[in-house]
Amino acid sequence: MHEKEVRLMKCPECGKEMRNGYLFCSKDGAFSFANEVPGIFENARNAEGFVKITELKPSHRTRVAASICEACKTVIFKY
Q: InterPro entries of this UniProt entry (predicted)?
């Protein structure tokens, strides 16, 4: 979910109400997605199926608005 578009929703797995918040990473990190996690010395952008979710933010925590269902351990977000 975009930071300004957080809305209450039901979990698609169990139907319980999800709690809004933020998915975040350690300082200087960025979120990405790929078919497999690349090795530490590989350029992540070259990984098969690479999608950049957030920009790298030096000295800041990267965050994405999200909804979580702790009952079934599901997190949903849009990028």
A: DUF6487
